[in-house]
């Protein structure tokens, strides 16, 4: 673990870590020396001249106090190296996250990263101080004392040494077993957490389904599995603790037996035997303090393994010098892509979205419309063919330059815990207030702000949850207007919007149309009709037809069907209203 922490650390954190390790080693040696001095002390006390004990007592006080002082300083270094390591780990994880393709971040991975950066990093960075030190003390002090005892009496020393090694081996085996069970229990905890979340967020469906629904059963089963896994960990932990105590105290009995035997035999004098007995009791006490820290070490190791996995996750290749796009046109040439390479979502897709024009993408659910948008923004890379912006392959443009060309207005708009104003400014962080207010007006966010107590300075956000879906989308359009990128990717909401939102979003769209290359995953008939070019996906990975509304109505049967169905739904909605 130290090796991995050292590799992650920067120069400052490395210095502190090395100082911490050196000081901890010195503290351990000083503690051991203090204990070993018990031998001359007891011998002096039982000698003809007990005053001979005074210099030994002075030495014990010296090494003892020195051990305490060094230990305190090493704790400070441990804390400092922990703090520097937390910063560094966040930096390393942050840098890596920025380089990973956006397509990498699915729900499960986001959950894992959140646990990693909160609890995991703090655990691992402080592991040397909080968990390794007590374990090192619990193992090193008894072993060093045993080596010193070998010099005084090889038989007793050997018994202590072998006993110490047995204790360490049992400790490692118990920890390994417990670690494996804990891993399983963590998985069960996560699964149960996911089922409970699902159960909570799907309450309307769950209640409608009545008692003993699928969701209820899934939660019950997951919680039962979680309880069983936790019980297995607890029972392994208790059994391990008992085994460890058995070996530690068994070792003590063996050492005492050897001591008695050596004394009766005349190989050891009484005072030395008493001193060695004291040492054995103290060594057992030290050893018994190690086991409980195993769990912290396991958690820290798991965090470091997660960081390793993150560091080895495949990133998108970036060009040394990004090429410059000729214009804001987008072209797909024979593109094949699948989230799992053996299951292509798009298969040989080709179309062009001309610079400055509006292109609508339509197709059945799951036909790959959002995937097309993700490929244009280079959240993921194609497996075959190419996606070009202004004649340049996005792989030669690089992720940063591609994103600079593209504004994304998706359905799942994320609002940060901040004011409406700052949430819009995210589109271009250096925009001034006047610019933010201008786009807020153009995107229809001012109408929302007028109803809020502090206008644009009202705090909104995920936990605030104050804005409706349509209102959120208007914020997203305002961000896009502020960013002013030449290409706008818009995923229209599938959900029905209130009349005001609908009108304002159409207004925002009109703002963008004509000035930008607009690529819209279109669900609304008005948007589709407005588009100069419509790409119709066939739902089997390919493109069925490309053209304008009138041409497609006449030439593409599936587009005509799609249009009739949608118009029918619209009529039905109007009738129902
Ligand atoms: N991150 C992902 N990992 C694995 N499969 C995915 C992922 N995202 C989408 N898919 C799958 O890829 C296919 C195309 O999805 P996509 O979201 O592009 O379709 P869509 O046409 O936009 O659908 P909709 O109209 O329902 O939003 C679907 O089968 C979907 O399940």
Automatic annotation (TrEMBL):
Can you name this protein?
A: ABC transporter ATP-binding protein
Say which species the protein is native to. Mycetocola reblochoni
Give the keywords, sorted: ATP-binding, Cell inner membrane, Cell membrane, Membrane, Nucleotide-binding, Transmembrane, Transmembrane helix, Transport
All copies of the ABC transporter domain together span 330-565
The regions listed as transmembrane in this protein's record are 20-46, 52-70, 135-152, 158-174, 242-261
Its topology with respect to the membrane? Multi-pass membrane protein
Q: Which family does it belong to?
A: Belongs to the ABC transporter superfamily. Siderophore-Fe(3+) uptake transporter (SIUT) (TC 3.A.1.21) family.
Q: Highest lineage ranks of the organism?
A: Bacteria, Bacillati, Actinomycetota, Actinomycetes, Micrococcales
Q: Which SUPFAM superfamilies match?
A: ABC transporter transmembrane region, P-loop containing nucleoside triphosphate hydrolases
Question: GO CC terms for this protein?
Answer: plasma membrane
């Amino acid at each position: 673990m130290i090796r991995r922490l050292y590799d992650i650390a920067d120069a400052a954190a490395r210095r502190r870590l090395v100082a911490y390790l050196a000081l901890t080693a010195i503290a351990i040696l000083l503690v051991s020396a203090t204990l070993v001095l018990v031998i001359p002390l007891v011998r002096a006390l039982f000698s003809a001249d007990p005053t001979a004990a005074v210099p030994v007592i002075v030495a014990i006080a010296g090494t003892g106090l020195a051990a305490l002082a060094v230990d305190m300083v090493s704790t400070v270094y441990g804390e400092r190296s922990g703090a520097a390591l937390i910063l560094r780990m966040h930096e390393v994880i942050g840098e890596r996250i920025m380089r990973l393709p956006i397509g990498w971040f699915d729900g499960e991975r986001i959950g894992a990263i959140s646990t990693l950066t909160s609890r995991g990093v703090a655990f691992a960075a402080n592991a040397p101080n909080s968990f390794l030190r007590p374990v090192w003390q619990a193992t090193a002090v008894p072993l060093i004392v045993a080596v010193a005892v070998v010099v005084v009496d090889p038989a007793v020393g050997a018994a202590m040494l072998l006993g110490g090694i047995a204790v360490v081996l049992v400790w490692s085996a118990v920890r390994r077993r417990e670690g494996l069970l804990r891993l399983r229990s963590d998985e069960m905890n996560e699964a149960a957490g996911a089922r409970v979340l699902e159960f909570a967020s799907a309450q309307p469906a769950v209640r409608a389904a009545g008692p003993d629904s699928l969701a209820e059963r899934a939660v019950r089963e997951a919680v039962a599995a979680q309880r069983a896994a936790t019980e297995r960990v607890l029972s392994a932990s208790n059994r391990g603790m008992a085994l460890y105590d058995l070996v530690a105290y068994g070792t003590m009995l063996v050492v005492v037996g050897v001591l008695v035997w050596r004394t009766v035999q005349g190989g050891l004098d009484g005072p030395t035997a008493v001193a060695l007995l004291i040492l054995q009791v103290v060594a057992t006490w030290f050893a018994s303090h190690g086991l409980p820290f195993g769990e912290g070490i396991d958690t820290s190791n798991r965090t470091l393994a997660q960081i390793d996995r993150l560091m080895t996750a495949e990133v998108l290749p970036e060009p040394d010098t990004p090429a410059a796009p000729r214009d804001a046109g987008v072209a797909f040439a024979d593109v094949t892509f699948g989230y799992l390479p053996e299951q292509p979502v798009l298969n040989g897709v080709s179309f062009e979205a001309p610079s400055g024009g509006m292109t609508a993408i339509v197709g059945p659910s799951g036909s790959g419309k959002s995937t097309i948008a993700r490929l244009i923004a280079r959240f993921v890379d194609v497996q075959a063919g190419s996606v070009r912006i202004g004649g340049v392959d996005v792989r030669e443009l690089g992720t940063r330059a591609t994103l600079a060309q593209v504004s994304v207005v998706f359905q799942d708009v994320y609002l940060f815990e901040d004011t409406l104003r700052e949430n819009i400014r995210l589109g271009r962080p250096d925009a001034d207030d006047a610019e933010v207010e201008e786009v807020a007006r153009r995107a229809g966010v001012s109408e929302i702000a007028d109803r809020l107590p502090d206008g644009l300075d009202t705090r909104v956000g995920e936990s605030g949850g104050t804005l409706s879906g349509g209102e959120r989308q208007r914020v997203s359009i305002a961000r896009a207007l502020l960013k002013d990128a030449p290409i706008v990717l818009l995923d229209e909401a599938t959900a029905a919007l209130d009349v005001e939102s609908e009108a304002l979003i159409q207004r925002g769209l009109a703002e963008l149309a004509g000035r930008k290359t607009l690529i819209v995953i279109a669900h609304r008939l008005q948007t589709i009709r407005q588009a100069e070019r419509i790409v119709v996906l066939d739902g089997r990975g390919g493109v069925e037809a490309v053209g304008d509304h009138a041409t497609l109505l006449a030439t593409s049967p599936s587009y005509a069907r799609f249009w009739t169905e949608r118009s029918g739904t619209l009529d039905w909605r109007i009738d129902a209203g």
